[in-house]
């Protein structure tokens, strides 16, 4: 898919998602080698992943994403953006409409993105604020299915079984120190982004799952899973 085509799944255009330099480099690589799936992964996002079975296992996750079909994206997850970055795993992002059609046995693998977006944890630092706002509006009620096949990036090799990952869902799960370090490196402010996104919706406070079988919730811990009215 050309960089200028629309990311129709969530109503976001591809224009401006990458820097001009990387866009030109991608174009040159495509011309020399032929287009590849990797050249289509022009959407960059950064957030944090938490192991569903153990909320103490926390990883900064750098996503490179592309659309697959209407309402479906796929992402490769790296532990950093630097040289020799390790592929931690993959994430599949689907719309709320598709999620609602899944059986509960499948829903338990999907985490909500609502808190990440309204709290400012999920960022697209290479985009302009207006473009990022539009992107986050489209992603607000989406769900992600994420497996980390390199469970501990500190190990020399990817050891053990894949980890099913979850998203942060309430304040305090990501420490101020970890956020400050991420923000400084990416030149963003989670606090400012949170304030800028207040118009998108309230920031939910959802308890983390108690078991691998728990099904995620977007807005409330109990009752109808809808945003609370102010």
Instruction: Please compute the radius of gyration using only Cα atoms.
Output: 17 Å
Give the ordered list of helices and strands.
EEHEEEEHHEHHEEHH
Strand percentage, roughly? 25-35%
Number of DSSP E strands: 9
Percent of residues in helices comes to 25-40%
- Characterize the main sheet: 6 strands, antiparallel, barrel
Our count of domains comes out at 1
- Which structural class do you get from the secondary structure elements? alpha+beta
Uncertain regions spanning at least 5 consecutive residues:
1-9, 13-29
What would the average pLDDT be, to the nearest integer? 87
Shape: globular
Q: How far is it from the N-terminal to the C-terminal residue, by CA?
A: 41 Å
Name the strands of the widest sheet in spatial order. 3-4-5-6-8-9
Number of helices, counting only DSSP H or I runs of 4 residues or more: 7
Description:
The protein is of the alpha+beta class. Helices cover about 25% and strands about 25% of the residues. A 6-stranded antiparallel beta barrel has the order 3-4-5-6-8-9. Strand 3 and strand 4 form a beta hairpin. It starts with 5 loop residues before the first strand and ends in a 34-residue tail after the last helix.
